[in-house]
């Protein structure tokens, strides 16, 4: 400080020199030194007061930064009074002569050190030709012997700093300019659980000029600035905060980034998804892969279930190399780690396949009677459900449902039936089933060979036939006999005589019922005589009937005529 005295002789006793700083601490590292404690000067002359101070670069982890220097002689309310504000010194103080300062022309990182082109500036000595550059820490406190100019090029290791001053005036030394050391990230927790509060501290061992900034990187993305300040605070950390973090410090010589710090949030499994591949149709024999995905830290283990049955503990995939229909069912997985577990929503696997062996059943299963309702049923296990085609022999009856029904079956419906089951994966054919319809014998047909008019002494064969199922048995009756006198389809009469004449009845029987037919068998010669006699008898009978009828008519006419004449006579008598 320069000061002009008005009196002839001035004796100054400098009692205190102060600096205002960003924080105030008491420490043994604080202090100051005056070059002279007593100064004697003539009135009107200029007196220059110089001093040096010392202070710590850091206190409790915080960097100390000088804001303002001031000179004072008085204290008010425990605060120093700046002489520049005292009216007695108005116009007579000059504090423009400040310490030198280092200006960075160029700085770059070269391997493990910083190369810088620097320039030293001061307002006190514009015509200075010799400068003192010092690099610290070093083995001595000497000026760099090859750096006496205003501009200088220096190499600084991390943590070293450079100052400049006018040669011969060490108290004008500039504030130190540091080559930054990489900061460190400190965490309040070693293991970080989801929901925890967490504070990260950016610890810089060298002074900075632009403070601290925090950067974040997720995956392969670039670093992004997220906040500024020495601390990064999380009130309730979440899995979404899992990322790589770093802090950056900067000054005029460049910037330094901390080692990456990974926030590895530990949490129970969540967001559990179960996926099936292939997604749509699953056919028998396909490879099918179930994949269970869950966000968890540490990584989850998985347990697989089918229905309520635990299948196995396994990885995130469960694979069917060749899936079978019996593998169909409801599947789900459970993800778990030491912090908890979560269960997926079940998925249903529906394995589709071609029809299995086809079975044809008949209802009723035993005897089938004419007129009954008969149902054929075709069964086959298939997915999707099979369609059916029905056949009788080689004739296709049509496509239908699994049942084919005769509401009133007839004998002509008898035959061999089978069905075919088919879906989009294939088809299968059933075995054949024979349907045999049982019914009562039809009315028999009787024939006589050679004829039913048989010559005396010859032979005749009577044959009886009837359509029946089961086949009919035959019984022969003559005239009104109650018991059969012969059985079998053929009745043979040898040496035919008159006593063999008559009505022959054939009865066809099965267990469903019976039917009869009759044939009149006569002797041929006896038939001619008996026919003539029969004609004569018939003619005589007709003649007698006619005569009796004529006599009856005549008698009736005679009686009627007699009554008429009597009535006429009576009428005439009354008239006259």
List the helices and strands and how they pair.
Layout: E1 2-4, E2 9-13, E3 17-21, E4 31-34, E5 38-42, E6 46-48, E7 51-54, E8 58-59, E9 62-63, E10 66-76, E11 79-82, E12 93-94, E13 101-110, E14 113-121, E15 131-136, E16 151-156, E17 161-166, E18 177-178, E19 184-187, E20 192-193, E21 198-203, E22 212-217, E23 224-228, E24 231-234, E25 243-251, E26 254-257, E27 261-263, E28 265-277, E29 282-283, E30 288-297, E31 301-306, E32 309-314, E33 317-320, E34 329-337, E35 340-343, E36 347-349, E37 351-352, E38 359-363, E39 368-369, E40 374-379, E41 387-392, E42 395-400, E43 403-406, E44 415-423, E45 426-429, E46 433-435, E47 437-438, E48 445-449, E49 453-454, E50 460-465, E51 473-478, E52 486-487, E53 490-493, E54 502-510, E55 513-523, H1 524-575
Parallel strand pairs: 20-28, 29-37, 39-47, 49-55
Antiparallel strand pairs: 1-6, 1-12, 2-5, 3-10, 4-7, 8-9, 10-11, 13-14, 14-16, 15-17, 17-18, 19-21, 21-24, 22-23, 22-25, 25-26, 25-27, 28-30, 30-33, 31-32, 31-34, 34-35, 34-36, 38-40, 40-43, 41-42, 41-44, 44-45, 44-46, 48-50, 50-53, 51-52, 51-54, 54-55
